[in-house]
Design brief:
single chain; 80% helix; mainly alpha
Length: 116
């Protein structure tokens, strides 16, 4: 259960990053009118949903921290890079190079060995 909730927390965090990116790409432009920029950010539905996912991720993560050793739990957070790269490649047309694939494999292998 603890590994499942850790994975859920990490996936929620990656989903939040994706939604924040989509929200910021939806026409929000930083201007000298900081109040207007903040209003646009706070009223953007993608950014709001991203914040909700982050909150859900945090509550799952708090449980994980209560039942796992920190030295095993925290390295699992690096799996968020794997999920985020997949989301960027799949839905945002971001590049996927051989070096990124090797990096992902190294992260996965590292997390595996730490949690053995």
């Amino acid at each position: 259960m603890k590994y499942f909730l850790a994975l859920i927390s990490i996936i929620l965090g990656a989903g939040a990053q994706y939604l924040l990116k989509v929200g910021m790409n939806s026409g929000i432009v930083y201007t000298n009118d900081i109040g207007n920029t903040i209003r646009k950010i706070l009223t953007n539905p993608y950014i709001q949903c991203g914040a909700i996912l982050y909150a859900l991720s945090m509550f799952c993560w708090l449980y994980v921290l209560s039942v796992m050793e920190l030295s095993k739990a925290y390295p699992m957070v690096s799996l968020g890079y794997v999920f985020t790269l997949f989301l960027g490649f799949s839905f945002l047309n971001e590049s996927l190079s051989m070096s990124k694939i090797v990096g992902i494999l190294l992260i996965i292998v590292g997390v595996f060995f730490i949690n053995r």
